[in-house]
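Data availability (excerpt). The following record was deposited with the supplementary files.
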Amino acid sequence: MIRASMLARRLSEIAGIGFHVDAMATLSPQEVMQMRQLTIFRKTVLASVVGLSLVAPPLYAATPVSFDSDACSNPSAEARLRQRENSVLGPAHAETHARARATQCRVAMGLEKVATPDSQVLAAAQAQATNTAGQWSAPFVIPVVGITAVLLHTGKVLFWSYEPSQYHNPDASNTGVAYVWDPVTRTGHAITPPENIWCAGQTILSDGRVFIAGGNLRYPDPNAPAGQTNFEGSMSSYTFNPLTETWTAQPNMSVGRWYPTVTKLADNRAVITSGLDETGSGNTTSVVELFTPAASMDGVGTMSTISFHDPSGMYPFQYLVSSGQMMQAGPAFYNTVLLAPGTWSWSSIPNMTSSHYEYANGVIYTDASVTPLKQVVMIAGGAEGDSAFRNNEWFEVGNPGAGWRQYPQWLQPRHNANTVILPDGTLFTVAGNAASTGYDNPHFNSELYNKPAGDLTGSWIPMSPNTIQAGYHSSAILLPDATVLLSQDDMNPQAASTHQAQVYSPPYLFKGARPSITSAPGTLGLGQTFNVGSSTPNVSSVALVAPGAVTHGNDMHQRYIKLRYTKQGAKNLRVTLPGSSAEVPPGYYMLFIIDSQGVPSVAKFVRVS
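Predicted structure:
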């Protein structure tokens, strides 16, 4: 199970109160308010570093509170909090938190300044040449916190989040917001989600529907009975129709889930694991459930319990691998298992070399252009103790006996980062932060793995830095035009109306004219060989990239498949899909061609049936 100290720390950070929920439960209401005021001030100071709004977020009340210097001079509150943290976290960890609070107080009294990365970031950006480091757009507003981002086959992006005005109000826990954004026009519109699906799990079904499991049933409530004060996970599930932009309620799960992982199988059913349950106890459920979708876009499917397995923590990494089984890896190093559809039995694979708690990220890369097909999973980063780390490791699915091995390491230790697979198979890692908290020591320098993900001879090289802060609750996904969308974090949740995003153009877009797909079928069958027309005879590779569906650094749908092809005529390609639905799960993909200079086309959406 996830360590108690780690769970307590993460719950408190997510709650936005800066201190542990369990520790605060013993404080008086006046002392709790003073501690909240201190944390709000801390967020306000940090917000000023990156140019965010300085409006303080409401916590358990809708009325904003301002910083009160008494919070730095109340020995009773500090002593009781320190005593509680000693018992929950241990003396060493409690001492780290006490020092952090002391620093916040010195900042509050003007005795210490907060360092700003802005000048360094700008200088680095000016020093980078766009043809080797890419280029970021100017920040622009997406008026919703992009905690979850899903690319729809319409080419638009679906975001959802909590309702900022009710953030952490237990009496209004079930209020959320959602937004559909068009990358072409950079405009969008709000839509109303069925409930607060913030912190759900999600994937994309074969017909393009988004399937969502769980979410936020209730924020932590200090007035709840003892043992029930933590987050409560929702038992609900929904599908979202991207064509009509409507939601359909699906059957409830048997347990609540807050921070679950959802994985689509080869037959279009979806496995749901992990997440805090509905009791408010902080228990991570071991119940494994299966959603079977209805045939029609707006139909209601079925839900069933299929197994039990301790996922070792929230948001474990899960991938459908070429054997047809589902791999689950992490966050604990020993949680490395395969789930066999049908029998729903678990089998072990070698352990990872380290645990990846605190929001690492991972990818699955398939090279179907070679025989036998090669498939690798790479998991990177996370945080342990008081800092992020960068132990990137990989697993070759077809060679399990080799175990997990070290992958080329990031330049920067990171957690809360996102790794996006680009059309040429390279990996782009962006944002995150270095401290154990959700927002401190943010990274602005992105980096690129300069070989396809299955090639271990590459290295990570620095790319142009983003200028918006993107730590905890940020997201990044690949867009159909081969750029990357990055959404700002929520360090100041009340600033949602001015929430920012940036679009990154990788170096390959500065190498010359782009090729284009002049013709391709809209629907493909497994094992099919089909024609693709190209604007150029100089094509070096063809690939399918599954649309992203990411939250908390965990992209539950991103998948890369390099395809086998031959040339037939100057500008015509004969491309072959693998014949297995485990290798190419049915659904919508972005089809890219890449020319001999490494420049990708704009994608054409195709549906594999």
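Summary of structural features: The chain is about 15% helix and 30% strand.
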